[in-house]
Amino acid sequence: MSANRKNEVVMQKLKLFSVLLSLLVLMPFLGLAEARSLAQVEGLRFWTNPGYTRVVLDVSRETDYRFATLPADTKSGVGPRLYVDISSSERAADLNSVVNVRDGVVKKVRTGTPQPGTTRVVFDLAALGEHKVFHLSDPFRIVVDVGGSGQAVPRDNPTASASSPAGKDDGIAAVLGSAPESAPLRVRLPSGDGRPGLRRIVVDPGHGGKDPGAVGPNGVLEKDVNLAMAKLLKQYLEKELGVEVILTRDRDIYLPLQERTAIANRAEADLFISLHANASNDRRAYGTETYFLNLARSEQAAAVAARENGMTLKELGDLEAILFDLMANSKINESSRLATEIQKALVADLSRNYSNVRDLGVRQGPFFVLLGATMPSVLVEVAFISNPREEALLIDRRFQERSAQAIARAVRNYGVALNLLAQR
Ligand SMILES: [Zn+2]
After folding, report:
1. Where is the signal peptide (predicted)?
2. Same domain, yes or no, for 205 and 149?
3. Centroid of ligand 1 to alpha carbon of 360 (angstroms)
4. Are 245 and 362 contained in the same domain?
């Protein structure tokens, strides 16, 4: 072999070596990319609200995302845009690439793939107004709120203003400091006509998704019972009172507590009713009770509030210290009145069909889910899921129907008493 030929072979070996080396260096990354398949952008839903449009992007798992706006390009005649880039994702095969919204705020929403592994969702806007992009978990979804020209996007939590200590998901920090960085500073003023009346009611089935609520001795989950009863209550209220009813959730999904009242505030609802089942360490405990938001007046009320809030009694004490400020907007008198009607109707109607109905009365407590609601709001603990007898009742269809009927009747009584409802 000549010297030249020898050099050539050495060079080739070096080349091969460097290729192998770079493969070795890259391998872990290639492996990772394969191990974690791309998130699927599966759905695109939108709602047109007074003054703003909400678009929800359903994504199959949690993944990073970023968003930005682009001003109108007069040269090419393209209007202002907002786009969201979803990392490590791809469009599901059946997702439409263009969705026409045309509601005066959002013209259309387009999805595309600017580079492999990134899904870009582009919002063609009528004007560059305020916007907010945030996500919700379980299932993961990215929410895009876009305001019309000069319109403020509603805040998630109208009471959010103070700085706060760190805390758990639905804890104090979430209530006080949950506004994401992109949250606008302006607060939307109510655009309702101000006439008193009962037109829209938000019914909130407690818990859901990763949060089962209390679990009965025979495995009944509170979240399931709450949802079944809420659907019945919606039916009865719509049929018998002719009001519009919005459920905070109509399936088994997780919703942070502050998101529930935010739904009611955004909808400018006239009432907010949260449905729950009670629980106690003492399996013998049973009965029906209805709560409205206030400082806890008893140890039991504090215990129930702590459980429903997912916090300790100590944390509840910290919350109570700041509660006075946050309650400024709450309708305590009306809430107390509504709670009284519901409690009365539930006990009376259930007593006609069941023995051992125990009236635990109307109570008050610092419930997160009622915090920040600007309309009369109550939380109903229909029965104890921790009591085997009442656990069986809670999954009984007739019991669910009778309870929902009683609550609907109570809402009617409340409306008639306060002259909010024409007597029919
Ligand atoms: Zn509950």
Report:
1. none
2. no
3. 16
4. yes
